[in-house]
Amino acid sequence: MKRTSARLADGREIIYFDALDSAPDRRIEDTRDLGPVSTASEIRYDAALDEWVAIASHRQGRTHLPPTDECPLCPSRGDHRTEVPADDYDVVVFENRFPSFSSGAVPLDPAPVQHELFARRPGVGRCEVVCFTSDHDSPISTLPPEHVRLVVEAWVDRTCELSLLPHVEQVFCFENRGEEIGVTLGHPHGQIYAYPFVTPRTRRMLDSARLHRERTWRNLFADLLAAELADGSRIVATSEHWVAFVPAAARWPVEVHVYPRRQVPDLPALHEAERDDFARIYLEVLGAMDNLYGLPLPYISAWHQAPVRIDRELAYLHLEVFSVKRAANKLKYLAGSESGMGVFINDVTPEQAAQALRAAAKPA
Amino acid sequence: MKRTSARLADGREIIYFDALDSAPDRRIEDTRDLGPVSTASEIRYDAALDEWVAIASHRQGRTHLPPTDECPLCPSRGDHRTEVPADDYDVVVFENRFPSFSSGAVPLDPAPVQHELFARRPGVGRCEVVCFTSDHDSPISTLPPEHVRLVVEAWVDRTCELSLLPHVEQVFCFENRGEEIGVTLGHPHGQIYAYPFVTPRTRRMLDSARLHRERTWRNLFADLLAAELADGSRIVATSEHWVAFVPAAARWPVEVHVYPRRQVPDLPALHEAERDDFARIYLEVLGAMDNLYGLPLPYISAWHQAPVRIDRELAYLHLEVFSVKRAANKLKYLAGSESGMGVFINDVTPEQAAQALRAAAKPA
Lengths: 364, 364
Description:
The structure is a homodimer.
Chain A: E1 2-7, E2 13-18, E3 42-46, E4 51-55, E5 91-95, E6 120-122, E7 126-131, H1 145-163, E8 170-177, E9 189-195, H2 200-216, H3 220-231, E10 235-238, E11 242-245, E12 254-260, H4 272-292, E13 299-304, E14 318-323, E15 325-327, E16 330-331, H5 336-341, E17 345-346, H6 350-361
Helix pairs in contact in A: 1-4, 4-6
């Protein structure tokens, strides 16, 4: 593998990950005339829910579903200058031009906080875009395992580097796919958020894990995985190093969790064999999802990694993939019960979902 | 006010709330041939997040955007038999035919729980529909204050009655409006969920309030309200008994919280004058929201009431109204950061949102 770091016209970092050490030199000058990156984001503390919320008003103007021939994530070819100056790439990562978190963040309003209940901080951290392939029309579910393996390597690299940034407490690698969930660019890509706090869902999971450990001396997620394997009714796929299942209390009509059989805190802790094997089981899971309704499924794919500094021994790396599609032509909306009270109503039983996904995973 | 209780053909309860004691007798027989109500819902415990999730697979077949002349929430007139047997009504409430929670709930699967980590219970509770008016084309934002006042009375009545049901721990009155958030019926209506547990968001808010009380001897929500009034920059509207403001850490591009000036646990605890006054400020808030982009705003309107049994002195009744519309033609989606990690990214500053709503509240 060959790793090449360069800078875009406005100073943002771009990193190429090429499978072959013999890949061409990717350090092509970015000749675009770009204004400075806007980074006026801040985080505000919600004292009622004990959570941080990011306020990033500069993002309202971000690019929205451009035509394919103006795709900013394709390589730069001919007169078409994109976010990627090179004329080809395998996998490439660069800093988001419309970041929710960035190292240059300053408070929107320099006035001091008026009241102790209204804590505010600059939105420090980093937001990156991960282009999975230079081919605009090849979603990650259609890439060969060796190529997905290269994406894993990019995630590992970014997790290591972003974990070293000041104030970063958690690194979140994820993919949003499909206009149904608001994806604004069609090119196959994911994102990485380096947050300046441990996220609310992770905090809650770690709190549960802490209680479980105090009661049992065991790891909660390892016990959940063992229980799913023992039960068997919600298993979607297994491999030497990984298990994919629909959780017993799934919130979404399609929801698959993918756990390594060995407890590790994050992606960098995975062995080579585990990384290789992940590419295979992930393609199997995504293939089943696309077969489920016979159309590309909109989904969110979210890596749950341990926080950078705390509770690392309580955490258990895993991937959660879920979709808002509850039928070929119906979406699951987060309405009053979900958004107002946090109570999910799932119209599909997890056992039925797992059965359908197992059937869809098999070649027709 | 006149209150009339009756039964639908399948045994579900229906309750009419008429403004005038002289209203016609609403006890009209429901002549439809209805099968039994399906109630096969259950709740499952998510041990990782320490939350209950409802599994209600019978709801997949529920009614989806019928044409207006088949609206099941209009009064029954001529050959058009609806969920409301009477030929007119002011406000009417009835049990949902596709409930997520119901008194008849039995576990989907009679097998005992296989593992202590997979706790399951029947989805007991109750789900009701509240028709705000018999006029299909008059959203609540266009009703006269006296009529909204009658809706308040219906919420109070239902909160009292549902709180007495076995296992009910929290009563949630809410309205989902707009196809953008998945509303399947166009008739102006809200819903009431009587949950068999204290909901996750309420639990977190009460936990915050408990800590705040231990530290300060004061109520968290009363302090937040006082701080918003002292700051002033996010106030949208005030009246003798109520204050409407955009919270300092708003999650949604349009989000307004409406608090009574006096700390009360729930709707039944409001005085007559507070109930009257609410109708006026609510219409002012909804009017501002509709004026904001010059089109009826899709929104979720959610009453936060104290749990039925516990922590009632920590709670503070209030309404949270929020919208997914971040511009006239753009929606806020809950993607990876929100759905995966629980971190909201708001593209609009709360101060800008409050300013826009204040301007929109004024007659043009």
